[in-house]
Specification:
The complex is a heterodimer of chains A (248) and B (270). In chain A, 76% of the residues lie in helices and 2% in strands. Chain A has 248 residues and is mainly alpha-helical. Chain A is flat. Chain B has two domains: 136 residues, D-Maltodextrin-Binding Protein, domain 2; 94 residues, D-Maltodextrin-Binding Protein, domain 2, CATH 3.40.190.10. In chain B, strands 8, 9, 10, 11, 12 and 13 form a six-stranded mixed β-sheet that branches. In chain B, strands 5-1-6-14-7 form a five-stranded mixed β-sheet. In chain B, a hairpin with a 5-residue loop joins strand 3 and strand 4. In chain B, helix 10 crosses helix 12. Chain B is globular. The chains are: A mainly alpha (248), B alpha/beta (270). At the A-B interface, helix 4, strand 2 and helix 8 of A face helix 5, helix 6, strand 10 and helix 7 of B. Chain A: One of its GO terms (biological process) is amino acid transport. Chain A: Keywords: Amino-acid transport, Cell membrane, Membrane, Transmembrane, Transmembrane helix, Transport.
């Protein structure tokens, strides 16, 4: 089991390439924890943003003008501002004015920590895009199909959940795919509020060991693999949802 | 024919680098400007005055170097996590940016000896927390600045959880918000913060400083002339007591190191 650390130590001594993560257990643990945190952020923000997208797209067609306006306002606000600014705004801005509890010393103790804020901010950011992506799918569902569902006695909500959304999802999956890949990569911004995800861990390591180039390589390969896994899952999903003859 | 052209091309590409490394001081004099990387968020060593200009002990030191060279001074604000890259990429001629002396750093930049300063690591803590010893911080989140060399050592030695941000404003803000129990940073910086009424009311520095480390100026590897010039300048600062005077000017307690070096060099003849 010591072959790998020994090899990387030897590599450092002979070539100067210093991959500390592969021989220093402390750095390795930080890196693995970082990857784990990236996965947690990705999975939770994907699920939350899909929910926001689906609900938002439904409400975009709501009879109430106020609801429609609110959804459009949300989309414009979160799509037109940079995600890093949003993260800072939530963590440093809103976090500071929300009520907070007290710890054993009587010091301020926020209820929502940096990881929660990162998940909230990123979900809303990606959710705004998902609303529009789902809308594009809904608009592609033939009017006649919706009418047929109504004729069968479906309520508006039931028709949306059982007929429109499943068909719309098939159409918008490629676009959704892109957005979710983007979301995975955007989780790196959480480093700015000290969420210990992969970029944060790697940045700590390279500023201590001065091995920027080597850690950059590790970073690229890590995200290459993570995105590869996500794309593979999405393609499997696309395939399994495929209806022969539909959507051509 | 083709080979000689490639050689010529290569020579053309490489020449500027060779020239820069060979005569650093001359190049700066020719340019008429000395470009120095300093901190802009590190009171009193480098911070912005109300007009936005970068001032402090290190900008003063940089200005003195420029004066000795007879050139104008350009200050480039850097942070801990990018300063070495700035120097390596030639964006700055030299660094005076609260950089501690570490073997890994000496491998990638040319350190200037003797170190111009030396400082401990300490923690800015809320008075309410009532912490009296490092051991009480075990398992607690401590705000920190990413890129500080001691983050890892503090985490390993005292079992604290480091929550690191870029720069020093964000960790301070996070501390105020209660996202961590204290802010671990250079002792002089903590002292500098406690000069502000904003912090001196509710915060304190009750712990004993640890991990005493010298601070080095740095130039790019191979810049021998600038290295030599700065080494002489540093010795002269110690001899004249310039650094001790600067500490007093900005209201911090002169460190044992700067007092000691002044005493030692004062009587030196060179």
């Amino acid at each position: 089991m010591d072959v790998i650390p020994a090899w990387f130590k030897d590599l450092y001594e002979t070539t100067g390439l210093n991959f500390t993560v592969f021989y220093d257990p402390y750095d390795w643990n930080r890196y693995v924890d970082g990857v784990r945190m990236t996965v947690v952020l990705t999975v939770s923000t994907i699920l939350a943003s899909l929910l926001i997208g689906a609900v938002g797209a439904l409400l975009q067609g709501a009879p109430s003008r106020i609801v429609r306006g609110a959804i459009n306002g949300f989309v414009v606000l979160f799509r037109n501002t940079p995600p890093l600014v949003q993260i800072f705004f939530f963590y440093f801005g809103i976090g500071a004015i929300l009520p907070a509890g007290q710890d054993q010393f009587g010091l301020r103790q926020p209820f929502i920590d940096n990881v929660d804020w990162a998940i909230i901010a990123l979900s809303l950011f990606a959710g705004a895009f998902n609303v529009e992506i789902f809308r594009s799918g809904i608009e592609a569902v033939p009017k006649t199909t919706v009418e047929a569902a109504e004729a069968l006695g479906y309520t508006r909500l039931k028709a949306y959940v059982y007929v429109i959304l499943p068909l719309a999802l098939r159409v918008c999956l490629p676009a959704l795919n892109n957005n979710l890949v983007n979301l995975l990569k955007t989780t790196t911004l959480a480093y700015a509020i000290a969420v210990p995800e992969t970029l944060y861990a790697v940045k700590q390591i390279w500023s201590e060991s001065q091995n920027v180039f080597e850690m950059m390589l590790v970073l690229f390969v890590t995200y290459g693999i993570l995105v590869g896994i996500l794309v593979w899952i999405m393609h499997r999903w696309e395939k399994s949802l495929h209806i022969p003859g539909y959507g051509r | 024919m083709r080979r000689s052209m490639i050689a010529l091309l290569l020579a053309g590409v490489l020449a500027p680098f060779a020239a820069q490394a060979a005569d650093g001081v001359d190049a700066i004099k020719q340019r008429g400007t000395l470009i120095v990387g300093v901190k802009a968020d590190y009171k009193p060593f480098g911070f912005r005055d109300p007009s936005g200009a970068v001032v402090g002990i290190e900008p003063d030191l940089a200005a003195d170097v420029a004066k000795r060279l007879g050139v104008k001074l350009e200050l480039v604000p850097v942070v801990s996590s990018n300063r070495i890259e700035f120097l390596q990429q030639g964006k700055v001629d030299m660094l005076i940016a609260t950089m501690s002396d570490k073997p890994e750093r000496r491998k990638v930049v040319q350190a200037i000896d003797p170190p111009y300063y030396s400082d401990f690591v300490n923690v800015l803590l809320p008075k309410k927390a009532g912490v009296k010893d490092w051991s009480e911080l075990k398992g607690k989140p401590l705000c920190a600045t990413s890129g500080a060399w001691y983050n890892k050592e503090i985490a390993q030695k005292y079992g604290v959880e480091i929550v690191a941000f870029d720069g020093s404003e964000k960790p301070l803000f996070a501390l105020k918000q209660g996202n961590c129990v204290g802010y671990v940073y250079d002792q002089t910086f903590v002292q500098g913060k406690l000069l502000d009424a904003e912090w001196s009311g509710d915060y304190e520095m009750p712990l004993k400083g640890v991990l005493d480390a010298p601070w080095i100026m740095a130039v790019a590897l191979g810049n021998d002339t600038l290295q030599k010039f700065l080494e002489d300048t540093t010795k002269d600062w110690m001899k004249t007591g310039f650094i001790v005077a600067e500490e007093k000017k900005y209201g911090i307690e002169p460190t044992d190191y700067s007092k000691g070096m002044h005493e030692k060099m004062k009587s030196a003849t060179n």
